[in-house]
Amino acid sequence: MGTNDKILVTGAGGFIGGALVSVFRSKGYRDIRAVDVKPFGEWYQRFDDVENLSLDLNLKENCERVAKGAVEIYNLAANMGGMGFIEHNKALCMLSVLINTHMLQAALANGTKRFFYSSSACVYNGDKQKTFEAPSLKEEDAYPAMAEDGYGWEKLFSERMCRHFREDFGLTTRVARFHNVYGPWGTWFGGREKAPAAICRKVIEAKVSGKHQIEIWGSGVQTRSFMFIDDCTDGIQKITSSEILEPLNLGSSEAVTINQLVDMAEEIAGIKLKRNYDLTAPKGVNGRNSDNALIQKYLHWEPNTPLRVGLEKTYRWIYDQYMARERGEAGVVREAGATR
Ligand code: GKE
Description:
This protein is an alpha/beta fold. It has eleven helices and 15 strands. The protein has helices at 15-26, 60-67, 83-86, 90-94, 97-110, 151-169, 195-209, 229-240, 258-269, 293-299, 307-326, and strands at 6-10, 32-36, 51-54, 70-75, 114-120, 136-137, 173-178, 181-182, 213-217, 223-225, 227-228, 248-250, 255-257, 274-278, 289-290. It has a seven-stranded parallel beta sheet with strand order 3-2-1-4-5-7-12, with helices on both faces. A two-stranded parallel sheet has the order 6-15. A two-stranded parallel sheet has the order 8-11. α2 crosses α5 (97-110), α5 runs parallel beside α6 and α7 packs across α11. It binds guanosine 5'-diphosphate-beta-L-gulose (GKE). The site of guanosine 5'-diphosphate-beta-L-gulose has 26 residues, from α3, α7 and β9.
């Protein structure tokens, strides 16, 4: 892959897509096409030296247009969010199948060399995630299938579509299952935010308002592993350029309870809060962690940013965004030419 070859990133106005465009820029790739359905003003990161397109990729003709000339395609476009969103928008989450289907067809028609698809830990069988003791999920635990309603089934179906486009049509497809990615330049309010950003925001709100209490969804003993964004973009590139055919876990193996996540955010903020548990709120599975034996075997690497380190960077970024909004400024968006 030469630095003059065209790269297409879909979902580029979003968290991971924006970070990926920023990484490719910093690596000297000069022909990057960034696409998102959101209007430019809502993109988290946008760079003037990149071809930015605000287009709906549910439409086949738009996928054909943006795939033109792309040597590599990174398909991260999907209707997604944390539990608060996917639990209440199952049909919308499943409609993302249109994007991946049309993008695969367009990539094939265009002769694209490599196609990366962003799958999720939500493909895993729910029966294997009933215990709180953070069961480490191996890739084969996706079958027999009982994925997360809506979002998980779309991801599992689209993984298989990628496989069959490779087997039947010879398109080189690579798939990673993300385990709860967090970091700066991600969603932190509005309903689509995941736990790390939500907890940071709530701790900041408590600190700034002086109301020293926090609402936590569920019992707080749910377990998850959270992967820092830089590990995610590194992993995407390693997996895309690899010869690994099957979907691979891309996640941290550092499991914590949600209570421990709140402990860390409090420690960063230098505050202790009264905890109110909302047992009626969206909880997802009881326990989940990423088994990284396979990625270690293939790549001799696994996501390794300690949560405490990544969470501090995330908390500081959200604090700045929060205070900017308190001052009546729109969320600070990184403008053209900003270096990473
Ligand atoms: N979002 C959120 N906001 N979650 C909270 C909050 C809060 O204020 N307080 C506690 N939690 C708890 C949730 O109830 C859940 O048990 C846990 O944190 C993680 O919630 P999450 O980050 O929203 O999402 P999940 O890990 O359950 O599921 C997500 O997994 C990703 C893949 O790892 C999915 O929503 C997708 O974002 C994706 O598939």
